[in-house]
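Hi there,

I know you've been waiting on this one. I reran it after we fixed the sequence typo, so this is the corrected version. Both the input and the resulting structure follow.
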Amino acid sequence: MLRHFRPINWRLLLLHFLATFLLIMGARQLYVIPYVSFLEVYQRDGIEAMQKASGQSIGQLTFDLVAAPLYARFAAVLISCLLSALVVWHRRESKLIPVLLFVSTIISGRTGYEKSSYVHTALAFLRSPLEAEPKELGLAVVGGILILLGLLLFLLTWRRPQAKLDQSFASSHHR
């Protein structure tokens, strides 16, 4: 029973947490794209015009706008935990890492750090080179880049560091 609970690789957990943050932020950018035109109509002409443009009730449209970031977060956390589990299984690390990743992501999400002014400023900075382009393109490019960076972090943690490989190789030959 205890052999399944190896020491926790905190560096790996931290990298997976950072990758999860990038996936969440990228997914949130992508989930907003279908609603950009409605939000522009709302800012320009008001809520009644937004309802006419969307063809949906105000309640349904409001629900969609509120639920979209939650769906994005849920999908990103689920994918992150699955990728973390694959990396942990491949590297033969502690099986608690994906569980701790899930718990820490849920707890940190309750703090509202994703809605902080620092995050909004950073995202606006990333979109700034695309100011002249349609907002949908800026959201798609920034969301895609964030998701690719998050996936790259998971990919970079796939292999064990060389020192650990040498150490495990040496210990297996001394038996």
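Quick highlight: The chain has a mean pLDDT of 85.

Best,
R. S.
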